[in-house]
Every structure is written in structure tokens, then in C-alpha cells.
Amino acid sequence: MRSGEIIGLKKSDINFEKNTITVQRTRSRFGESTPKTKYSIREIPIIELLSPYIKELYNKHDNDYLFITQYKKPYKDTTVFQEQFWKPALKELNIPYRRPYNARHTYATNMLYNNLVTPVQLAQLLGHANTQMVFDVYVNYIDSFNDNFDRFIKIYK
Length: 157
Fold this sequence. Notes:
- Helix content is about 40%, strand content about 10%.
- The radius of gyration is 18 Å and the shape is globular.
- β3 and β4 form a beta hairpin.
- It has helices at about 5, 50-60, 80-90, 100-115, 120-125, 130-140, and strands at about 15, 20-25, 25-30, 30-35, 40-45.
- By secondary structure, it is of the alpha+beta class.
- The protein folds into 2 domains: about 1-95, hpI Integrase, Chain A (Orthogonal Bundle); about 100-150.
- It has 6 helices and 5 strands.
- The N and C termini lie far apart (about 40 Å).
- The model has no long low-confidence stretch (mean pLDDT about 85).
């Protein structure tokens, strides 16, 4: 998800029965709005590793938003969120600073590299209109397909 989509999450966007998140809004310094494009409105699966953290946030307070400030208000934009959560998390993990958006690129590249999704599925997960962005941006991060190519595949039987 994009950073603004994350801070725009409401409890009503979480479906624990289906284990999904519905992305339908974003927040920025300009206020709350619909996501970047019409394709950015999407339903994405909650990965098992993330599920306990989402449940903890969900049950932590009574606010409609999942992420709230110390004043029980949703974040206006990602700046404060980055300062309070992102930078300390990187420091604790001993990872040099990088923008939160880089995590999106890492996720996308790993999903493709490990053959966990097809480019079409990845485009849908990321909220892209089609696979063009996947091929233009994320595929370029993958160094060499030939190193792991299965040379024993049978094309014709």
C-alpha cells in the first residue's frame, strides 16, 4: 500500500473473516480523498505475518481510523507517521534510512522474484491499471532471470 493509503485505513476497511483490507481512501496534507487512480480502490489479502499486528491496532482504541495521533485524530499526512514510527523502526532494525515507499518496491520485487504472484496479480495488488508499471519499474530490479532458469522444463510432450 502507499503511505497515504495506510494512514487512511479505517477499521471498517478490515475484514477478518476474509482476511482482506479494502483500500478506498488516502490521506495527505491536502486532506482525505480517494486513492491515486480508480484502480487503486482495491481489496488486498492480509498476509499471515501482518495479521496479528493489524488485530492489535484494531483492538487498541475506539477510533474509526487504524492509525491515530496521540490526540486520537487520524494523521494528516505521512510526515509525522514517518518520524514517530518509520524512522525508529529502521533504527531498531539497523537499516539505513529509506523512504517508506521503498518498502512497496521491495514487496513488489520480492513477490515477482519468488514467483509468489504473476505480473497481473501484482498490478492488481499495487493498484495499477495494468502491468505496464510492473514491467517498467519492478521487473528492472530483478538482476538475472537466467541464473535460476529451469533448463529441464518440457515445452512439448
